[in-house]
Structure formats: structure tokens, C-alpha cells
Amino acid sequence: MSKQNDTSNHGSxxxxxxxxxxxxxxxxxxxxxxxxxxxxxxxxxxxxxVLSVQALYQEYLRNPIAEDIPLVGLACFFVxxxxxSAFIKAQYPQEGSNFLSLIILMxxxxxxxxxxxxxxxxxxxxx
Length: 127
Fold this sequence. Notes:
The chain crosses the membrane at residues 16-35, 41-57, 69-90, 96-113. It holds the Pfam family DUF1422. Keywords: Membrane, Transmembrane, Transmembrane helix. This is YijD family membrane protein. By secondary structure, the protein is an all-alpha fold. It has one domain. It has four helices and no strands. It has helices spanning 2-35, 43-62, 69-91, 99-116. The protein is flat.
């Protein structure tokens, strides 16, 4: 039973992090549309933003949150926003440099990888 609950909670954490990433990308698209004349309006990022925030709230109500997930979720939100910003600035170079965005993006991704345990070597069982 404990293994089943742990697996379910792990899937819920992944879902939370992916939804935070999507919310960050959609939020940055809406801000880019407001601030830059080159970015055209699309209703789909607005719909995706509303649905991802709603799903995040429902996930928050249904499942308990692990200790590190709120901070890692916020970092995933910023990865989505900063990553989309770097993408937009690569498409429209006249809007400015994306160097700082890429540096912030890489630092956040490395920090998230460290927090989630992707950067630590796995211990081998010697049984």
C-alpha cells in the first residue's frame, strides 16, 4: 500500500511541475503579446493558462504536497516563462538579447535537476 501511494504521489508531483511549466509559458506569451507588436494574438495560450491554473488548483486540493514541490513548482513556472521569453527573443532579435534569459534558464534547470535528484549518482544495491 505504501508503494502504491508513493507511486501515485510521484505522478502527482510530475503533473504539478508540468502544469506549472505550461502556466509559465502561457503567461509569458500573453505578456509578450501585450508588450510586443510582432507577437500576434491567439486565444489558445489564454485558454491553456486558465486550464493549467485550474488543474493546478484541483491537484492542490486532491493530493498532499511534498516539502520541496512548491519551490520546485515555482522554479518550473519561471523556467516556462524565461524559456518562452528566450524563444521569442530568438525569433525577434530586434526585441533584445536573450543571453540573460538563457543563463537564468540554465541555472534554474540545473537547480531543478539537483532538487529532483537527476544530478546525483544513484547508489547501487549490494544485496
